[in-house]
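Help needed: design a sequence for this.
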């Protein structure tokens, strides 16, 4: 008898190169390693054909009882709608990934304020928050009961039930299948051969582990109109005020070097026999870079490129450690790409409201450091947008004004940021209903008697 099958649906951007999806592909691997289920990931881009998507899901399920997980959805309402339809047609739909708990439960006090996000209990049978291995008892049961499973959230008898979560266990994070991801094809699911992957070292952000208070300015405009008032609203925040996972994770787990190396050993290879480029998931990677490279060399792993992501202040503070790592990378014929620095803005006012914890001076110091390192290590270090880096740049924001625009444009012109730093398009400030800035929005609504629209789980300040 063939194994039962399930599918995990995920958001995907086909405008980028074929990249992996760490969370969904890890969950699929954990399911296969611990149950009788074969599990694959269906990556769905925007403007997809729903009929084709359902046909691909059916083909991947191959007659099995329809169990469809959803993760890494990027707050896409079209994927919520797909889950809702599948549930109505009899499938067990499971919401997983970051923010699965708050998205299932809905926005704070939505029962008292009808315009707030009502949550996703109508689209998903239940949600699972935390480690994917919590699903194992449900999938291994004969009766399909999930009500006692750790990490599960569900709606029953007019109330939400929220079960306690298990802690993260690195034993389940060492091996990941990278050949279990498919796209939507006209004739069915089409395999995606990934050419870059992620390696997990640290889950969460140390900056998001510390709670503080920040006075966030009144907006300069709402609904694309001048707001007409000044002042501020003080909110609690952990990490950046806009971060949609800071409240969710903080700093959850740091894996051992052995677990990281096992992941790297499992990375697929390029045609030249080297491992495809990988992003090290660690918000402050510089202290560990040399140790990582030394261990990679000691194990005889042939890698081509490591991508790093970091805050600008940690980059500046980590200069000595980064140089040390680059010297070793140069001797190993390995390229280090600074693929994403969280600049976000070059206006001090906006950086303060985003609670970045530093000013545009730090951003400029980080830019100058990267340019200097490129001159010193031309073959071993890269950082520019032309190299494939996508640095954080948030614009527009609710605090844009003549002053903030003047500050930003002056910095862009003086330091030539448009030549190598700025992405091709900026990202508007996205306020998820459960990020810290959402508390600012709700306080603003109550204090000023206004109502902002919700676009699914996002709050429309524009």
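Sure. Designed sequence:
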């Amino acid at each position: 008898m063939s194994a039962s099958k399930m599918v995990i649906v995920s958001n995907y951007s086909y405008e980028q190169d074929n990249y992996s999806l760490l969370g969904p592909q890890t969950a699929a691997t954990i399911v296969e390693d611990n149950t009788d289920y074969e599990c694959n990931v269906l990556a769905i881009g925007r403007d997809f054909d729903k009929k084709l998507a359902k046909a691909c899901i059916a083909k991947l399920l191959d007659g099995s009882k329809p169990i469809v997980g959803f993760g890494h959805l990027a707050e896409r309402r079209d994927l919520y709608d797909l889950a809702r339809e599948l549930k109505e047609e009899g499938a067990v739909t499971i919401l997983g990934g970051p923010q699965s708990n708050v998205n299932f439960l809905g926005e704070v006090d939505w029962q008292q304020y009808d315009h707030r996000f009502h949550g996703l209990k109508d689209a998903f049978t239940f949600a699972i928050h935390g480690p994917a291995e919590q699903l194992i008892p449900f999938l291994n049961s004969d009766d399909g009961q999930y009500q006692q499973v750790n990490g599960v959230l569900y709606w029953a008898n007019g109330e939400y039930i929220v079960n306690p979560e298990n802690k993260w266990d690195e034993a389940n994070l060492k091996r990941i299948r990278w050949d279990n991801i498919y796209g939507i094809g006209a004739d069915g699911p089409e395999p995606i051969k990934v050419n870059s992957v992620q390696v997990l070292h640290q889950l969460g952000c140390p900056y998001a582990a510390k709670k503080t208070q920040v006075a966030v300015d009144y907006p300069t405009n709402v609904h694309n109109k001048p707001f007409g008032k000044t002042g501020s609203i003080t909110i609690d925040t952990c990490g950046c005020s806009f971060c949609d996972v800071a409240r969710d994770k903080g700093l959850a787990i740091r894996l051992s070097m052995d677990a990281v190396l096992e992941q790297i050993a499992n990375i697929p290879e390029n045609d030249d026999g080297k491992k495809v480029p990988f992003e090290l998931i660690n918000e402050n990677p510089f202290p560990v870079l040399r140790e990582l490279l030394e261990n990679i060399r000691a194990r005889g792993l042939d890698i081509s490129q490591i991508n790093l992501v970091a805050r600008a202040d940690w980059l500046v503070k980590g200069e000595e450690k980064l140089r040390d790592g680059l010297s070793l990378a140069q001797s190993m014929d390995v390229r280090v790409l600074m693929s994403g620095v969280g600049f976000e803005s070059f206006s001090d006012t906006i950086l303060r409201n985003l609670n970045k914890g530093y000013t545009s001076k730090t951003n400029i110091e980080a830019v100058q450091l990267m340019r200097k390192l490129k001159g010193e290590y031309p073959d071993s270090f890269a950082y520019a947008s032309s190299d494939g880096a996508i640095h954080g740049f948030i614009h527009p924001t609710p605090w844009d004004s003549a002053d903030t625009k003047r500050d930003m444009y002056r910095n862009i012109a003086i330091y030539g940021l448009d030549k190598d730093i700025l992405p091709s398009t900026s990202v508007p400030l996205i306020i998820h209903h459960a990020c810290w800035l959402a508390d600012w929005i709700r306080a603003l609504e109550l204090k000023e008697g206004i109502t902002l629209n919700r676009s699914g789980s996002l709050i429309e300040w524009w």
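The chain has a mean pLDDT of 95.
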